[in-house]
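Sequence in, structure out.
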Amino acid sequence: MCPEIELNCQKRESEVEQLLDSIVTLPTLPAVVTKITAIIDDPDSSINDVARLIAKDPPLAMKVLRLVNSAFYGMRNPVSSIAHAASLLGVNVLKNLVLTANICKAFGGLKGKQLFDRDAFWYHSVATGLLAKVMIRHSKKRSRSDPEEVFAAGLLHDIGKVILEQFLTDEFINIMNISEEEGISFYNAERRAECLSHSEIGAGLAERWKIPDPLVEAIRFHHAPLSGSSPSLMACVVSLADDCLHQMEKGPASPWALNPDILHAIELNPSASGEIRADFEEAMGDGELVEILTG
């Protein structure tokens, strides 16, 4: 990265910090997220330690049981024990469930006006995470990224839009107007408005939440994943998933137009797109998974 670009990036990151500092009611993640993450990352802990902590949070425990008993997992017999559910789901799935549930809860408590469809927002967020997770499993570079972390990056990729809507309302309305009047994407409308982007704001928030650096970078660069001297694999996968879903919103049955440069970066064969799409649609099902994760 050349010095001029690096200096500009540092300046914009500083502006994001100042913005987030100025928001008194900025959502924070509950302590349970930090506690469970610490237990999962502790090599001396066990899945039973995680299960015991989840059991102390009844709403979270209910989500765990609903998830393990959902059609997505297809258990033959009902699972009623948190310990059993935890052992079946695994630590990475539990980590994502805790993160997802608490992020939705944190933003659900915001009292400002909702200027866009929040249900559609969360549906797209979960769908992006699931599609990115399927894509990385088909990539020749799948060993370099944990599919569950890729899911989390997809889930969080647009979280900065909620901050814009709730705390920079005039700027958000201006961006939406530019997008509609000129028929361009929200991201390109942000660039036309010359304001801080939802990607930059979302990455800044993720840093404050102490989200792992690879996820922060995926959020920051999901609209420009090939920028810089060392493109982020996670950002590339999330960008591709996000783009494919926007294409599906315009024409659900149309073949995907896949960016060849991103396909090359993640070593994903375009011939796999049919199988990827089928796996994704099976994972999404009738929307039960989205409702469990975000409801």
